[in-house]
Amino acid sequence: MDLVATTLVSDNAVHARYADRLDMGTATLWFEFHVPLADLDLPGRWPSAPAEARFINQAKIAALRHLYRTIGSELARLQGQLQDPSQDQTQPTA
User: Taxonomically, which superkingdom (predicted)?
Assistant: First the structure.
């Protein structure tokens, strides 16, 4: 799986897509994330036009770091459940 796209959505979120192929028409596996800018540690608000590209790149990097931490936390939680099933906080589905 590779990162195939990161996009700043309007002025409030970053959208990231991972897929097994760059061509989404032939991809068989993919997942997407939508991360609100409010959840990211970014310096200030929207800058003036000359600095906008830099801000967009900072937002994309911050979103990917946020996703990395989120996925890492979930992996650790699930691994803990495998080692100690009494930690399972999920509810069975009907």
Answer: Bacteria
Residue boundaries of the structural domains of the chain: 2-82
Mean pLDDT (whole number) for 73-93: 79
Strands (E), the chain: 2-9, 13-19, 30-36
Spell out the residues 6+ positions from residue 41 whose beta carbon is closer than 8 angstroms to its own: 62
Residue 81 in tokens: 């459940």
The gap from C-alpha 22 to its chain's centroid, in whole angstroms, comes to 18
CB 35 within 8 A of CB 52: no
**Stated pTM of the model:** 0.59
Point out which residues pair with 13 in neighbouring strands.
Answer: 9, 36
